[in-house]
Amino acid sequence: MGIVVRIDVELAKRKMSVGDFAEKVGLTPANVAVLKNGRAKAIRFSTLENICRVLECQPGDLLEWVED
């Protein structure tokens, strides 16, 4: 399985919509969906920093390694 992105969990904790989150981070809702669904192959550190700023969390709260 590899790296699992937990953005959906963090959004649910904060009761934040994908649209609101996308706007605050500077992404399109479609790109947020790509991240949430695990289809992203890479993420810029600047984007990860914006996500952590908006969600007030650490990168480890968003990313988890799961053994295949």
What this model shows, in words?
By secondary structure, the protein is mostly helical. It has a single domain (2-60), classed as lambda repressor-like DNA-binding domains (434 Repressor (Amino-terminal Domain), Orthogonal Bundle), CATH 1.10.260.40. Helix content is 57%, strand content 12%. The chain has helices at residues 7-14, 18-25, 29-36, 45-55, 59-62; strands at 2-5, 63-66. It has a two-stranded antiparallel ribbon with strand order 1-2. Helix 2 (18-25) crosses helix 3 (29-36). The longest helix is centred in the C-terminal third of the chain and has 11 residues, at 45-55. The N and C termini lie close together (5 Å). The model has no long low-confidence stretch (mean pLDDT 94). Pfam families: HTH_26 (PF13443). Residues 13-62 form the HTH cro/C1-type domain. This is Helix-turn-helix transcriptional regulator. It comes from Arthrobacter ginkgonis. InterPro entries: Cro/C1-type_HTH, Lambda_DNA-bd_dom_sf.
Topology:
Blueprint (H helix, E strand, L loop, with lengths): L1 E4 L1 H8 L3 H8 L3 H8 L8 H11 L3 H4 E4 L2
Helix pairs in contact: 2-3
Oligomer: single chain
Please state the second-level CATH architecture.
Orthogonal Bundle
Structural class: mainly alpha
Task: Write the CATH fold name.
Answer: 434 Repressor (Amino-terminal Domain)
Order of H and E elements: EHHHHHE
What is the CATH class?
Answer: Mainly Alpha
Tell the overall outline.
globular
Please indicate the count of domains.
Answer: 1
Please bin the fraction of helical residues: 55-70%
